[in-house]
Design goal:
This protein is mostly helical. It has one domain. The chain is built from three helices and no strands. The longest helix is centred in the last third of the chain and has 9 residues. The chain is extended, with a radius of gyration of 14 Å. It starts with 24 loop residues before the first helix and ends with a helix.
């Protein structure tokens, strides 16, 4: 993709924003879109909200 801005490709939230890649779950998982989701759920919504507020 060749993005040259301040973020590396791996740090972007929307990894297929322009639709250049397959949109399906299998492709999203290969791109790493769902990495660390389990850890995010383990933190819990209240903790996440407090971190955002801080």
């Amino acid at each position: 993709m060749g993005y040259t801005g301040p973020l590396a490709d791996k740090d972007r939230i929307f990894t297929n924003l322009y639709g250049f890649q397959e949109p399906w779950l299998k492709a999203a998982r290969q791109r790493g879109d769902w990495d660390d989701t389990k850890a995010l759920f383990a933190i819990g919504q209240d903790s996440i909200i407090e971190k955002i507020k801080a």
